[in-house]
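B., you asked whether I could sanity-check this one before it goes into the benchmark set. Here's the sequence:
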Amino acid sequence: MLVLFNIYLIFVFNNIHVNKYLRCMKSKWLLVTGLVLLTTGIILKFVFVESIVPIFLIVAGVILKIYYILGKIIQTNYKAGYEILFLLTGLTLFFLGMYLKEPLLFIEPIYFKVLGILLKVTFIFLFIRKTKNN
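And here's what the prediction gave me:
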């Protein structure tokens, strides 16, 4: 399907736009693959509770995301800003949701997990925007 999408881009856009798109995706394939593996692992974790495969997918996704972020930090002389608060708060809420088995003061653990994931995704978008500007 990705191949068909790229062929479509070749016919619709001229060569300059296609090359710019492919260069952009070439630099972000680690991040996109990490996000896909992480999302797939989380979905499979809810479907197959006893399986170990989702854990491997989640760990592989996290490792690819960390590798991408560290590479960008080294490559662009990234200076941390307020977006780190999104990451730290997101990780804290996500792990709190993973730790809790019972509702905490009428709040289900799934809400902590979802809010944590949303904050981590917000960090990724802010991180990409900040490193793109540098």
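One thing to flag: Residues 27-77 form one domain. Otherwise nothing jumped out at me.
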